[in-house]
Amino acid sequence: MSSRSACAIDLGPDLQGQLEQFDADYVAAFDAGNARALAELFTEDANVMNTFGAIVSGRSAIIAALEQSFAGPCHGATLQITPQRSRRLVEDVVVQQGTTRTTRNTDPPTHRDFGYTKVLLRQSQAWKLAMIQFGNIEPPPSKST
Question: ∠ CA 111-113-117 to the nearest 5 degrees?
């Protein structure tokens, strides 16, 4: 897992460490296929927008979507998170952009890359995801010679 920001704006070392721990917890829950543990990292009223533009709202709906994903296309998959830009908007709100790579346990292994924008909100001294939006990262078109 990579969780070091390439460009951290307005972040001190304490906050940077907290965000890295958040990502480590997220990856551990994802890699374990644990929908409930992963959903606990979201606020009760969180929103997730997938790559198709569908929005899943609320922790219970997020759990259901994750359970379906872990039973299907993400069964046995692993996750890598690479934050690229983080910005503290106010004391308890951080916006972060970066990429993720999901590697599926196939022969040979396959992967999908996504861009993300997430909003983290500190609640009771813990950082939670209030919103995350994913977008497909398409490989650049090949150049014809």
Answer: 150
